[in-house]
Specification:
CATH class: Alpha Beta
Number of domains: 1
CATH superfamily: Amidase signature (AS) domain
Helix content: 25-40%
Number of helices: 15
Distance between the termini: 28 Å
CATH topology: Amidase signature (AS) enzymes
Order of helices and strands: HHEHEHEHEHEEHEHEHHHHEHHEEH
Largest sheet: 11 strands, mixed
Strand order of the largest sheet: 1-3-2-4-6-5-10-11-9-7-8
Radius of gyration: 21 Å
Structural class: alpha/beta
Length: 470
C-alpha cells in the first residue's frame, strides 16, 4: 500500500471497492507512525487500540453500504480540539494531564461519519507560533527536510500528512496556522469563513480570529473535510447558519502588487508569478488592485491577538483546572502555576495583551487596532464588490527555514505577513502548492494563497484545482 500517493478520494474509492479494509489501512498508518514518527514527532499521542476499533466499526458500515465520505478514513487531530475522555494539552505543561469532558463539534461530526482518529498532533503551545518550536514537548520536523521546521502552529498536523502518517488532518488557523505549515510542507491547507465551522470544543487562543480547518494532499481532500465539519452550532454564538457555497464561476483575480513587496524572497515571488501566468492562460483575468490598509495587518494582529490571548488564558490560574503549584497564598498559587505551566512565547503574548488592554494604553493600542481592523475588512468587501472574484498572494515570504533561524520574535512574526489579513477580515482562504525553490541543495515547496469573499469556499476550490493543474 503506497501511502505517499493516498488521498481521501482514492482511499474512499478503494475502501468501497473492497481493495482493502479500513482496518488494513489503519494498521498501515499505525505501522508508518511506529517506523517514522520518532524522527518527525508529528504526534503527541497515538490511539492504536481505539483507532482499530473505529476501523472495524467503519468496515461494518462499508459492508452494509452505509459509508459516508470519511467512513474508515484515518485522520490526525490537532491537540487543541476536545475529544471526550482524551488528554488535550494544547502542547502545554499547563494542561498536560487535562482530559476533555465532551467532544468538540468537529469531532462529533467526524465520529458521525465513522472516521478513524489516529491521535493528537503536536503544535505550538496554545497555537502561539509559526514553527512548532514552542511546543512544551519538543518541536515537530518537516518530513521534506528534518533540519527544517514544518511551520506552525499546526505543524504536527501538517507533518503527519506530509510524512504520510495520516490521510488528512484537522488544524486551527488564527493568523495563518494552517496555510503557513501547508505551504512549508507542500500540502493544501484550508482556512474557512469565520463561523462556518464551529469553534465549540476548540481551546481558545484569539476568539475573534480562530478557525478550524484542514490539511490534505489535494484541494478535493480539504473540500471533503470542510463539507463534513461545517454547519450551524447552537453552542457557538459566532456560528453562522449552514450554507451552500455556490455562485458564479470565478474569472477575475486581484493581485495587491504593492503588498507583495513585504520582504518576500525573489524566487518565491517568481514561482508566484509563474502560477499567475498559468491561470491567465486558463482564461482568468489578472487585475492589479490596491489594499492600502492591508500592510498594517501584521501590526494590528499582534495587538488584537495578544489581547484576546491574555483574556482567554486568564482562566488557567492553577485553581479551576490544569497545573496547580502550591503556595502560601492564592496570589502565590497563581504566579507559580502560570510560571511553571506556560512557556516563554505564551508568557510574552500574555504580557503584551495585558499591556495593550491596560487603562493607560487601551485607547492608544487596542481600540485603534480595532478601527484599523474594520478598515481592512471593508477593503476586502469593497474589492470583491468591484468585480474581483478572488485575491491571491504568496502564502509565505520564504520556504521552510531551519530550526533556530528565526529566534528573534519579530522575525518569526513576519512569517505571517500574507496570512493574517484573512483572519482579521474573517474571509476564507486556501494555500495550494506552488512549485519549489532551492535552499542548500534541497528543493522546498512554496504556497499560492487564494482569498475569497465570505462564504465562497467554492471559489477557493475552483481556482485551487486550476492551480493544481498548472
Amino acid at each position: 500500500m503506497d501511502l505517499s500517493k493516498l488521498t481521501i478520494t482514492e482511499a474512499r474509492r478503494a475502501l468501497d471497492a473492497g481493495e482493502y479494509t479500513s482496518l488494513e489501512l489503519t494498521n498501515a498508518y499505525l505501522e508508518a507512525i511506529r517506523t517514522r514518527d520518532a524522527d518527525i514527532h508529528a504526534y503527541l499521542e497515538v490511539w492504536e487500540d481505539n483507532a482499530r476499533e473505529e476501523a472495524r466499526a467503519a468496515d461494518l458500515l462499508i459492508k452494509a453500504g452505509k459509508a459516508q465520505p470519511l467512513t474508515g478514513i484515518p485522520l490526525a487531530i490537532k491537540d487543541n480540539m476536545l475529544i471526550k475522555g482524551r488528554i488535550v494539552s494544547a502542547a502545554s505543561k499547563m494542561l498536560e494531564h487535562y482530559r476533555a469532558s465532551y467532544d468538540a463539534f468537529v469531532i462529533e461530526k467526524l465520529k458521525a461519519q465513522g472516521a478513524v482518529l489516529l491521535g493528537r498532533t503536536n503544535m505550538d503551545e496554545f497555537a502561539m507560533g509559526s514553527s512548532t518550536e514552542n511546543s512544551a514537548y519538543g518541536p515537530s520536523k518537516n518530513p521534506l527536510d528534518l533540519s527544517r521546521v514544518p511551520g506552525g502552529s499546526s505543524g504536527g498536523s501538517a507533518a503527519a500528512v506530509a510524512g504520510n502518517l495520516a490521510v488528512a488532518s484537522l488544524g486551527s488557523d488564527t493568523g495563518g496556522s494552517i496555510r503557513q505549515p501547508a505551504s512549508l510542507t507542500g500540502l493544501v491547507g484550508l482556512k474557512p469563513t469565520y463561523g462556518s465551522v464551529s469553534r465549540y470544543g476548540l481551546i481558545a487562543m484569539g476568539s475573534s480570529l480562530d478557525q478550524i480547518g484542514s490539511f490534505g494532499h489535494t484541494v478535493a481532500d480539504t473540500k471533503v473535510l470542510f463539507d463534513a465539519t461545517r454547519g450551524h452550532d447552537l453552542h457557538d454564538s459566532t456560528s453562522i447558519a449552514d450554507y451552500e457555497p455556490s455562485g458564479k464561476v470565478p474569472k477575475v483575480i486581484g493581485v495587491p502588487r504593492s503588498f507583495l513587496s513585504q520582504g518576500i524572497d525573489p524566487d518565491v515571488l517568481e514561482q508566484f508569478e509563474k502560477t499567475l501566468e498559468s491561470l491567465h492562460a486558463r482564461g482568468y483575468e489578472i487585475r492589479d488592485i490596491e489594499l492600502p490598509n492591508v500592510p498594517y495587518s501584521l501590526a494590528v494582529y499582534y495587538i488584537i491577538m495578544p489581547a484576546e490571548v491574555s483574556t482567554n488564558l486568564g482562566r488557567l490560574d492553577g485553581i479551576r483546572y490544569g497545573l496547580s503549584v502550591t503556595g502560601e497564598n492564592i496570589q502565590e498559587v497563581y504566579g507559580k502555576s502560570r510560571a511553571a505551566g506556560f512557556g516563554p512565547e505564551t508568557r510574552r503574548r500574555i504580557l503584551v495583551g495585558t499591556f495593550v488592554l491596560s487603562a493607560g494604553y487601551v485607547d492608544a493600542y487596542y481600540r485603534r487596532a480595532q478601527k484599523v481592523r474594520s478598515a481592512i475588512r471593508d477593503e476586502f468587501v469593497q474589492a470583491f464588490a468591484s468585480g474581483i472574484d478572488a485575491i491571491v498572494t504568496p502564502t509565505t515570504p520564504s520556504p521552510a527555514f531551519k530550526f533556530g533561524a528565526k529566534s528573534d520574535p519579530v522575525a518569526m512574526y513576519a512569517e505571517d505577513v500574507f496570512s493574517v489579513p484573512v483572519n482579521l477580515a474573517g474571509v476564507p482562504a486556501i494555500s495550494v502548492p506552488n512549485g519549489t525553490v532551492e535552499r542548500e541543495g534541497v528543493r522546498l515547496p512554496t504556497g499560492f494563497q487564494i482569498i475569497a469573499p465570505h462564504m465562497r469556499e467554492d471559489v477557493l476550490f475552483k481556482i485551487g484545482e486550476d492551480v493544481e493543474r498548472a
